[in-house]
Amino acid sequence: MAVPEKADIAIAGGGLSGALIAYRLRLTRPEVTVALVEQGPSLGGNHTWSFHASDVSAATYKWLSNLVRHKWPRQAVIFPKFHRVLETSYCSITSSRLHDIVAPLVDEGLALNADIAEVAPDRIRLRDGAVIKANAVIDARGARTSDRLVLGFQKFVGQELEFVAPHGLDAPVIMDASVPQEDGYRFLYVLPFTERIALVEDTRYADGAALDREALRRGISDYCAVRGWKISKVIREEDGVLPIALAGDIDAFLDEGVEGVAPAGMRAALFHPLTGYSLPDAAGLAERIADQDDLSGPALARFAVRHAASVWRNRSFYRLLSRMLFSAAAPDQRYKVLQRFYGLPRSLIERFYAGQTHFGDQARILAGKPPVPVSRALGCLGEEKYLNRALAARATTQAQGG
Ligand SMILES: Cc1cc2nc3c(=O)[nH]c(=O)nc-3n(C[C@H](O)[C@H](O)[C@H](O)COP(=O)(O)OP(=O)(O)OC[C@H]3O[C@@H](n4cnc5c(N)ncnc54)[C@H](O)[C@@H]3O)c2cc1C
């Protein structure tokens, strides 16, 4: 595949965010030429990205819907104390669908198997020396590590499984936390694609990022056995270690990016602080970028940095909850925080996942006796204090050679 030589906008990384930005630009700004540069052989890698329909506005859903591979009218959660069905639609986009739809639209602007060595405000340089010149460059190369963010982790292995007989589910089980609690908050996640095929994930909200694939695979097969689902085939497997935001200095984080280049997706810390999910944010940013009058490099970079900083600042309440989940609750008791949350009204839960809780919601979420020790919950209150403590602890560990 030939590498494009120039474009109005060059996007580094053809994952979720980069591909959605390219897609939205092609849909609404066909006069703007786009280069989309991805190191893998296809857009989006090997993912199933899900979201609650209520995470995005009706207008956003309209343009995303073409990418949606599966949609269910409801979803369920299961906790030791109760089982609840929520009449909130749940949707999944698959990376293969994303590729099949976006790749032809980007057409000659698409560069696959293209390993980026460097991004700069006016170009992307590949490791083989090729250069793509652009008026504006967007960095959507996925998550990067930084000392400026204090994170917990949502780790999982998911297997798309075919069963010998129908599994009997007609709606996703977003969390089944009735399973033994291990390595933090543990739950199983099940998306029933057809009557005999489902994606089953074993997920842990854990302090460390290490992924024990074998343990998670065992968790999946044990769960299927308990539910009486006999596996005939493992169709596909995916895994992830998603960041859960506890605290951070967003300005310092964004300053670590390349000046004059617009950060996008996980690279801009655009993810839900308590789930690590980024699809609604990625769609929102794609829309906003395509709506900009001025798509010159400096303007786009300024806009993207301001947008990322403002989204982060607006989510301090979610980071407080993340800190309570990770720092106040003992690992095997973390499920109680979610169990209590899922007893709240559906509209509040929907606003929570959409990142739109208002003051009344926040008061309601925190009201009553917390499911964690009060003294430890109080210790989580100040983000700056928490951040400084975490940075100091990290510096001590590093000084000790840890
Ligand atoms: C397995 C998995 C499942 C997930 N499920 C969900 C979900 O259900 N819902 C949800 O909202 N979120 C989900 N997430 C979280 C988050 O939405 C995803 O991580 C999402 O893919 C992040 O989008 P992104 O564009 O920022 O990064 P990515 O999708 O990771 O895209 C970055 C892209 O940049 C490319 N790249 C990186 N470096 C280079 C380089 N040097 N040269 C060229 N290309 C490069 C990568 O190959 C990649 O394609 C999931 C994450 C994982 C890992």
Please tell me about this protein's structure.
The chain has 402 residues and is an alpha/beta fold. The protein folds into three domains: 6-70 and 91-145 and 249-313, FAD/NAD(P)-binding domain (3-Layer(bba) Sandwich), CATH 3.50.50; 149-246, Alpha-Beta Plaits; 316-399, no CATH class. It has helices at 16-28, 58-64, 95-106, 213-227, 250-255, 279-291, 297-313, 316-328, 335-341, 346-353, 359-366, 374-378, 383-399, and strands at 6-12, 34-37, 48-52, 68-72, 75-78, 83-86, 90-94, 110-111, 116-120, 123-126, 131-139, 149-163, 173-176, 185-192, 197-206, 231-248, 262-263. The strands form three sheets. Strands 1, 2, 8, 9, 10, 11 and 17 form a seven-stranded mixed beta sheet that branches. A seven-stranded mixed beta sheet has the order 6-5-13-14-15-12-16. The chain is globular. Flavin-adenine dinucleotide binds next to helix 1, strand 3, strand 16 and helix 6.
Calculate the mean pLDDT score and round it: 92
Order of helices and strands: EHEEHEEEEHEEEEEEEEHEHEHHHHHHHH
Helix content: 25-40%
Spans of at least 5 consecutive residues whose pLDDT stays below 50 are none
Keywords:
seven-stranded mixed β-sheet; 402 residues; binds flavin-adenine dinucleotide; alpha/beta; FAD/NAD(P)-binding domain; Alpha-Beta Plaits; 13 helices
